[in-house]
Q: What sequence folds into this?
């Protein structure tokens, strides 16, 4: 199991372009293919991962590793997702520092960035509609929309720190639900 | 995030100069993985070789690792508490909002013309309606980028491959993928 966790997350780490939120989609696909956990359990992990500081992708890996194989699993998954970036960054630092000014690299990233946007959008859609039991017109749904909308305004318009927003929503959740 | 690292590394510690900092940002923004962890790798490597890189990455990961544990422990402790369940529902909505904000920032940095718009639409559609593995999308995007630029150049069109970078817009070019 440890070995499998390590390998799966090395695979994810290798293509973790775009950092955190885009990688959620990748991890979700791996986890559901392996049948490691259901969608509800996965979204709960993502929620927890979003609360902690640091990368939501790495935090998700840590929690999945922990739920599958305890402390050892958590370490295996975390090392797995970080290792490829570590090696790639060192290679770039040694060999191709001028990478960004290379035309091929520029054009590849021109195509890659929209894909990352697509991955994040998908994560948003999937996350927003998961774990919502009941109809569209339920009290829970209305409350969730209200909190989500409020957070959007606070973060996008007033540049409130994400952690403050998370704390506020926890309080709002207790009040509303 | 980048502003914090710059403050610490360039001004307080004097470990790197502004130009090296620019290199660091472009490397850690383009390699897979998070900008923060990649920056730590880059700085660690510059100052202390491979051992330095491993030390820096361990140091930036460890606190989060412990906090994640603490949180999941607390979660188990209060498993059936109604108040905690309600708070988590609120947090779920907040995290959804944060993902939407990240998508918006990434949209601004990525959708530069019709071709990039189509790529976003196609990748989202494929993810929603097929079982395609995201890995193929990433490889497809890298390839499509090269092909589109080649085609446009052949047609004599000019292509802007990235947002014009100015000091204030650094954060926009490498959006804060990570909170």
A:
């Amino acid at each position: 199991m440890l070995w499998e966790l390590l390998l799966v997350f090395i695979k994810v780490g290798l293509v973790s372009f775009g950092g955190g939120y885009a990688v959620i989609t990748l991890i979700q696909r791996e986890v559901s293919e392996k049948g490691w956990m259901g969608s509800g359990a996965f979204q709960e992990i993502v929620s927890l991962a979003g609360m902690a500081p640091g990368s939501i992708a790495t935090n998700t890996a840590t929690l999945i590793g922990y739920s599958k194989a305890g402390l050892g699993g958590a370490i295996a998954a975390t090392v797995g997702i970080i290792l490829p970036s570590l090696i790639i960054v060192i290679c770039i630092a040694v060999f191709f520092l001028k990478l960004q000014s290379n035309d091929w690299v520029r054009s590849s990233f021109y195509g890659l960035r929209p894909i990352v946007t697509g991955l994040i959008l998908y994560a948003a859609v999937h996350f927003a509609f998961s774990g919502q039991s009941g109809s569209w017109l339920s009290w829970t749904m209305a409350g969730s929309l209200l909190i989500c909308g409020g957070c959007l305004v606070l973060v996008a318009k007033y540049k409130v720190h994400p952690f403050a927003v998370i704390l506020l929503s926890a309080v709002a959740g207790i009040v509303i639900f | 995030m980048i502003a914090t690292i710059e403050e610490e590394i360039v001004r307080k510690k004097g470990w790197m100069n502004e130009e090296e900092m620019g290199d660091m940002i472009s490397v850690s923004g383009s390699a897979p993985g998070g900008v923060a962890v990649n920056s730590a790798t880059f700085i660690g490597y510059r100052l202390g070789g491979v051992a330095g890189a491993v030390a820096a990455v361990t140091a930036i990961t460890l606190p989060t690792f412990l906090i994640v544990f603490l949180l999941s422990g607390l979660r188990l402790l209060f498993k059936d508490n109604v108040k905690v369940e309600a708070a988590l529902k609120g947090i779920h909505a907040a995290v959804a909002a944060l993902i939407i904000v990240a998508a918006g920032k990434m949209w601004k940095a990525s959708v530069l013309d019709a071709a990039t718009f189509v790529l976003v639409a196609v990748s989202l559609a494929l993810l929603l309606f097929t079982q395609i593995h995201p890995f193929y999308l990433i490889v497809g995007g890298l390839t499509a980028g090269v092909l589109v630029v080649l085609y446009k150049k052949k047609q004599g069109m000019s292509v802007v491959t990235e947002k014009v970078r100015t000091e204030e817009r650094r954060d926009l070019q490498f959006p804060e993928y990570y909170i």
In short: The first helix of chain A runs from residue 2 to 14. Residues 20 and 55 of chain A are 6 Å apart (CA to CA). Chain A touches chain B through 100 residues (CB under 8 Å). The mean pLDDT of chain A is 84.
